[in-house]
């Protein structure tokens, strides 16, 4: 049967139905499906194009950008021991405006690039852009901005991209950009609509991160709820006019199923200090300590019926002001200790979270790791040689070994359904058939190990300070007083809670961070316990059993030694 270049499948209400529809596609349409998928993958991962990343500065975003910056710079060591850093290869990072949430993304992103490149950066455009060679950070849109402010944002971003094209000496053929956008569409649509015609015509592809959920139904994600149906329709219209694809990427559809970075990164609490400078890691350590203490004293307060200001007094009695003044917020706020909040601290979900905080106390600003959905795209992405569900069918080309499919799909905004279609600019990045959560998790672990090795070549081993050691020692003492076995025994607690809470106190001293600081010994199970996909002792899977053992993915030595994980490449999914 002769192949056909166009196809349209049946409507599906969720991702599983859509996958079944693609798998049952008639053979005559499969080559067209394959070609669309391959062409899209080639474009969104094209190293010759300029990649523009609109981004937050949360931990997962910083680590994902580190992957890209490492690829762009491609640092190699010369025979004389010096470092060769390529002069070309540009990158534009657009900082989301999160001023209302109390963080300066622009400054944080500049600090990341400064750390990774070793350069001070040169400010341009009245301080709204900072260039580190051909990698430039620029202030983005304020979601509540006026029309005048939006016009200013469009002009500065346009000028930034034009200058990077010039500085990095992009050829006429490569003077194309791939725009990787976050969930909020109006800013992207404003840029496309009001930038210069030349800039508009340089678009080669767009990716949209964490805007659309397809796993349990076709609906916006929490981050995408600010988008209207009109926004999605305008995106489709613009992409159709420009003849470019728009690829939706999200963690859930890629089987990135775990919420904690420690699952995907070996010795996360230790090596984070290689990836990031102290100015970037410190706020996350402070936030984690604040959250952990709040949880511990909520539980202690509930066990003694002490709430509000009475619970805060307990915290203050066991935490020195000079230690906590810089970061204690929730744990010294009476509103944090309302009766219902304190009672909820005994739930499995909150104990689970406390175990993670105790083991690797670096709390992200938001929930989950949505930016890790971007590890598959861009110049460092893994989807540039993409198989499709039809790879097993008869074809003139041999199947390509790659873990992703870029499925062309049409979206019905009226009945919230999706279907395979060759006539739409929309794509959905999916794991290829045969992929599962374990394989995806292992691949990300390997990817991050490779990124770590590249950064470690220049930055060396992490440096842990006495200040961190002393601060965690005091936090641990307060947590142990609040929820240790002696403190809670005989108190009013739901059945079984005391045993579960014991995993928190164990991790405070014997988890990854406690071990790195030299505060707790090797941990119950010794080195290498819990290397499996489930993370620390099976906690990540949601169960409460099997939480014992050593600190997660193996025990790192004290600073200065080489952790056993380095060199484990093949065993951890290293490409």
TrEMBL record:
This is Uncharacterized protein.
């Amino acid at each position: 049967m002769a192949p056909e270049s166009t196809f349209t499948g049946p409507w599906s209400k969720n991702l599983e139905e859509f996958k079944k529809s693609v798998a049952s596609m008639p053979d005559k349409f499969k080559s067209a499906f394959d070609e669309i998928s391959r062409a899209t993958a080639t474009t969104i991962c094209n190293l010759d194009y300029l990649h523009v990343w609109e981004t937050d500065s949360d931990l997962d975003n910083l680590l994902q950008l580190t992957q890209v910056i490492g690829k762009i710079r491609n640092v190699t060591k010369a025979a004389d021991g010096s470092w060769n850093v390529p002069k070309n290869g540009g990158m534009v990072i657009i900082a989301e405006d999160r001023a209302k949430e109390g963080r300066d993304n622009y400054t944080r992103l500049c600090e990341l690039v400064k750390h990774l490149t070793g350069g001070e950066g040169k400010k341009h455009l009245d301080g709204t852009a900072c260039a580190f060679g051909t990698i430039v950070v620029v202030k983005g849109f304020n979601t509540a901005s006026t029309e005048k402010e939006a016009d200013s944002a469009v002009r500065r971003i346009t000028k930034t991209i034009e200058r990077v094209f010039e500085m990095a000496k992009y050829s006429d053929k490569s003077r194309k950009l791939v725009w990787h956008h976050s969930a909020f569409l109006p800013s992207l649509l404003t840029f496309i609509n009001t930038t210069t015609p030349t800039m508009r015509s340089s678009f080669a592809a767009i990716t949209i991160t964490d805007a659309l959920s397809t796993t349990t139904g076709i609906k916006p994600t929490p981050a995408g709820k600010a988008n209207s149906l009109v926004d999605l329709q305008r995106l489709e219209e613009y992409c159709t006019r420009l003849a470019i694809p728009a690829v939706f990427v999200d963690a859930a559809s890629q089987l990135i199923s775990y919420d904690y970075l420690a699952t995907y990164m070996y010795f996360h609490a230790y090596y984070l200090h290689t990836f990031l400078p102290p100015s970037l890691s410190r706020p996350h350590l402070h936030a984690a300590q604040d959250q952990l203490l709040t949880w511990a004293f909520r539980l202690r307060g509930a066990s003694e019926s002490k709430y509000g200001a009475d619970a805060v007094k307990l915290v203050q009695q066991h935490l020195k002001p000079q230690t906590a003044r810089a970061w204690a917020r929730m744990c010294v706020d009476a509103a944090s200790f309302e009766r219902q909040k304190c009672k909820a601290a005994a739930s499995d979900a909150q104990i689970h979270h406390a175990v993670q905080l105790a083991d690797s106390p670096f709390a992200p600003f938001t929930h989950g790791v949505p930016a890790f959905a971007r590890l598959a795209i861009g110049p460092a992405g893994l989807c540039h040689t993409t198989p499709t569900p039809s790879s097993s069918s008869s074809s003139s080309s041999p199947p390509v070994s790659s873990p992703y499919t870029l499925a062309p799909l049409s979206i019905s905004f009226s009945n919230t359904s999706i279907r395979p279609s060759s006539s739409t600019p929309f794509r959905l990045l999916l794991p290829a058939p045969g992929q599962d959560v374990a394989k995806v998790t292992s691949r990300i672990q390997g990817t991050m190990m490779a990124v770590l090795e590249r950064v470690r070549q220049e930055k060396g081993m992490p440096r842990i300070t006495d200040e961190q050691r002393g601060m965690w020692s005091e936090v641990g003492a307060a947590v142990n007083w609040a929820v240790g076995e002696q403190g809670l025994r005989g108190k009013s607690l739901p059945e079984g809670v005391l045993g579960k809470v014991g995993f928190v106190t164990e991790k405070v001293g014997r988890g990854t961070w406690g071990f790195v600081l030299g505060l707790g010994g090797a941990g119950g199970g010794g080195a290498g316990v819990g290397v499996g996909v489930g993370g620390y002792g099976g906690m990540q899977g949601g169960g409460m059993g099997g939480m014992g053992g050593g600190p997660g993915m193996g025990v790192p030595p004290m600073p200065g030694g080489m952790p056993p994980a380095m060199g484990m490449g093949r065993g951890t999914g290293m490409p």
